[in-house]
Amino acid sequence: MRLTRRMIVIAATVAVALSGVITFGAPSNAEELKKVTVRLAFSYNGHRSPYLLGVDKGFYKEAGLDVEVLEGKGVTSSMQLVAAQQDTFAIIDPPSLMLGVAQGMPIKQVAQLYQTSPNALISWPEQNIKEPADLVGKKVATLQGDMTTTMLYALLAKNGIDSSKVQIIASDGGTRNQTFLAKRTEAITGFPNDSLLSLSDAAEVKLNHFTYASFGVDTMGDGIAAHTETVENSPEIVAAFVKATLRAYDYALQNPEESIDALLKRSPSRKKAVEVEKLKATAALLHAKGSEGDTVGFSVKERWEATQALMKEFGGLNTTVEDVTTYYTNDFIH
After folding, report:
1. What is the pLDDT of residue 230?
2. Torsion angle of alpha carbons 178, 181, 187, 191, nearest 10°?
3. Beta carbons of 58 and 22 less than 8 angstroms apart
4. How far apart (Å, rounded) are the C-alpha atoms in residues 162 and 73?
5. CA-to-CA distance for 27 and 37, rounded, in angstroms?
6. Do residues 286 and 47 make contact, with C-beta atoms less than 8 angstroms apart?
7. Which helix (H) or strand (E) holds 151?
8. pLDDT surpasses 80 at 27
9. Main-chain phi, psi angles of 126, to 5 degrees
10. Residue 116: CB atoms within 10 Å
11. Which residues contact 132 (CB under 8 A, 6 or more apart)?
């Protein structure tokens, strides 16, 4: 009988449990831990603090892993590092992953955390920007090479707006924020569970925003991606990382202040109250219609098909696949 990867993962889980270990894959000493890395898209922040919490609480260690959580320089860079097997995992959104696969990157999503993308357009309240059409004649600060920027063009195209009538100013993260806060642009791209909250705090005003999803660009956000060889050859490591990460998210959302304390150990200049709100705002992103039993991390095939269609029409995806499971697997979601 041919063993499928899912059967191997289940067998590995059962074998560990029968060995008398209480938690999944827990080794008897530190020398047995498997060292892996996970690359975030950018710097440590509240909505991704569960990875840091998972390290501090020992969730990864109990799963048999020695995890190093690394800051990134953008999603494209993170994908390249995993594709080159310099990192084990990266936090990637499906639109970015599709573009990476189309470029020949051997990567696959092994857990889909954010079922809804938090991509959003943030603006000063006095600008009265409530929909994409209101951006005509306005300046928007964006991140160079970031998916929020790519999807902004898709948002404009989807809503029949000539992008040449919107001045899109791309720069690095720090410059982007300062450009907006100095009111040299009327709007900025970002996430409601991230920059909306930190920029509102810095500006001491409640900024306006609308999500791309509310105007037809409804894709997905953060997921965990790995090299296809890692998925095929080391399923026990992937299973252990996914299981411990989902455990960390579950614990973090129930104990947000504790999760943010893990963040502040690495980034002490962050404001705790703001970062707690970022984490709390993340909870609603983890669930989607069609998910089996509303299981966190599960990929819904129809969502991937719709995202690929949207990326082909508006997002610059020139090469598509017939079977979208090329992009993801649910083998590690239980």
Report:
1. 98
2. 80
3. no
4. 30
5. 18
6. no
7. helix 147-158
8. no
9. -70, -15
10. 17
11. 121, 155, 156, 159, 161, 215
287 and 269 together in one domain: yes
Cα Rg for the chain, rounded, in angstroms? Answer: 20
Q: Is 129 in contact with 121 (CB distance < 8 Å)?
A: yes
Would you state the torsion angle of the CA atoms of residues 289, 236, 282, 209, taken in this order, to the nearest 10 degrees? -80
How high is the mean pLDDT of the chain? Answer: 90
Count CB neighbours of 104 within 10 A: 8
The verdict on 225 and 321 lying in the same domain is: yes
> pLDDT (tens digit, 9 = 90+) per residue, 59-79?
999 999 999 999 998 899 999
> What tokens appear for 132 in the block?
């994409």
With beta carbons less than 8 A apart as the criterion, state whether 65 and 36 touch: yes
Within a domain: residue 18?
Answer: no
What confidence score (pLDDT) does residue 306 get? 95
Confidence of residue 40 (pLDDT cuts 50, 70, 90): very high
Domain assignment of residue 145, given as a range: 120-215
The per-residue DSSP string of 85-117 comes to: TSSSEEEE-HHHHHHHHHTT--EEEEEE--SS-
CB 129 within 8 A of CB 250: no
Angle, CA of 281, 284 and 296, to the nearest 5° = 125
Asked if residue 40 belongs to a domain, the reply is: yes
Residue 65 one-letter amino acid: L
What pLDDT digit, counting tens, does each position of 314-330 carry? 999 999 999 999 999 99
